[in-house]
Amino acid sequence: MPVILVANPKGGVGKSTVATNIAGFLAWQGHAVALGDTDVQQSSRQWLAQRPPQLPPIRALEVDDGQVARVPKGVSHVVLDTPAGLHGKRLARLYGLADGIVVPLQPSLFDMQACHAFVQELHALAPARKSPPRLGLLGMRVRQGTLSQQQLQRFRQGLIEAAGGHLTWLGELRDTQHYVQLAARGLSLWDISPGQVEKDLQQWESLCKWLLG
């Protein structure tokens, strides 16, 4: 049963946006998905409460301080949203559950510094696992042709090279109100007409392939 962890200790980088849309994508692929929220704000849990019942189902997963209480019967895929400030023992517990970890980051100096330290912490945990989870970086709220985009590209290239092939670049998501509007209705990109979010779906292609890989 694949477990996808969406994590970054920096707050406000879009973890819940990524987690809910991953869950929506997997549900539309025909998988039995459970979405767990380890953040006290419970953004993903609130999104799930708004989800229209006629859409592919996504079940709620109870998680307490990094401990999954019980995976509902029949679930084939688990997505876990995480809080800001995730470090130490709590991170180690969640890391131990994960098959894949998506690290969202925004193109700002503070986000990139926090991401660099976090990726190092994840690599330090790898020896404790016989088969460490796959790690992927995802740029968030990126504006094409900007200086910040260029800085992000240089940063991620250096980070991936330093990781020696143990880190995958999953692409960039643009800064758009689509995610805000969909979240308010409990929807993902895959729950509406593709023509309405064509550019966004294209940006998700690399991440989707990685999820199914």
Automatic annotation (TrEMBL):
Matching entries from SUPFAM superfamilies are given as:
P-loop containing nucleoside triphosphate hydrolases
Question: Where does the source fall among the domains of life?
Answer: Bacteria
Q: What InterPro entries would the database entry show?
A: CobQ/CobB/MinD/ParA_Nub-bd_dom, DNA_Partitioning_ATPase, P-loop_NTPase
The CobQ/CobB/MinD/ParA nucleotide binding domain extends over 4-187
A matching Pfam family? CbiA
**Coiled-coil regions listed in the entry:** none
Q: What is this protein called?
A: ParA family protein
Q: What is the lineage of its organism?
A: Bacteria, Pseudomonadati, Pseudomonadota, Betaproteobacteria, Burkholderiales
